[in-house]
Specification:
Layout: H1 11-24, H2 37-44, H3 48-60, E1 64-67, E2 71-74, E3 79-82, H4 97-100, E4 104-114, H5 117-123, E5 130-139, E6 144-152, H6 154-157, H7 172-180, E7 186-194, H8 198-204, E8 212-220, E9 226-235, E10 239-242
Helix pairs in contact: 1-3, 2-3
């Protein structure tokens, strides 16, 4: 374990590259604790502040998680999100079976709350409109990986189980359909990236400068009226989005070599 003082790469990045390689080789597996910062500093012959910068970098990348009083650990498996929110309506009904063994959703609260601007806009309401919010947290065995909330118009769910603090044994949308008599027909997903709020950073156990991915999911009925607006926030470096789709074949009647979609 060495640092080359003449290299163009600064010392903490050199150490990060070596620790990253060792993690990828499996020398430290998910959940295993790394040596202490003083021990790593001694091994590389650098100051503790240099190692702290290394740890901070690998935490931002999603490789490490620090637990106060316990040490620094290799973070668990990256969360793979298949086809964004479509899986909740597919044959698997809710979370994919390959994720169910590793991820657990916990209901945090249910109640009235002012709607954020993007949620209110999706419903066609003014920002701050009073809506019913069902908030949840998704965890692996070792860390939280998602904070989320589903929003509903109070008039749509008044007097139903949706506005009560009840945990369901089937996907939420099925409960909503039964409670409201409305059926989900189409949905739209909007994905964006930003820095976390203070509350999100604390809940997800990430640094405030770690980017997060944010999904805004809107479910509509057959008349294209919003039934539910759901938000999900994930640690960006710890999340992979996987989209699988068919590639269409040549369309009869179109000249060879000329695309049927204009890219501008």
């Amino acid at each position: 374990m060495t640092v080359n003082p003449g290299a163009a790469e600064v010392p903490h990045r050199q150490i990060a590259a070596q620790l990253r390689a060792r993690i990828h080789r499996g020398e430290w597996g998910p959940g295993e604790r790394l040596p202490s910062i003083p021990a790593i500093a001694t091994a590389y012959g650098v100051a503790k502040q240099t190692v702290q910068r290394t740890i901070d970098q690998l935490r931002i990348e999603g490789l490490l998680i620090t637990r106060p009083g316990s040490g620094t650990f290799v973070r668990g498996t990256r969360r793979r999100l298949n086809r964004l929110s479509r899986g909740r309506y597919g044959p698997q009904r809710g979370y994919h079976t390959d994720l169910a063994a590793r991820y657990r959703q916990h209901l945090v609260s249910v109640g009235r709350s002012p709607a954020p601007a993007e949620v209110a806009e999706a419903f066609g309401l003014a920002p701050g409109a009073d809506l019913v919010a069902r908030r949840h947290l998704v965890r692996t065995a070792d860390s939280p990986v998602e904070v989320g909330v589903s929003w509903f118009r109070p008039g749509d769910v008044a007097g139903t189980v949706i506005e009560r603090t009840e945990v369901f044994d089937r996907p939420l949308y099925q409960e909503v359909e039964e409670a409201t008599g409305r059926r989900y027909a189409t949905a739209t997903d909007h994905l964006s990236a930003r820095l976390p709020t203070r509350e999100e950073a604390e809940t997800l156990q990430i640094r405030p400068d770690t980017p997060v991915l944010v999904l805004l999911h809107v479910g509509y009925d057959a008349d294209h009226r919003p039934i539910e607006v759901a938000q999900a926030t994930w640690p960006g470096p710890n999340t992979t989005l996987t989209e699988q789709y068919r590639v269409p074949g040549p369309r009869p009647g179109l000249p060879d070599g000329e695309p049927d979609i204009a890219l501008g």
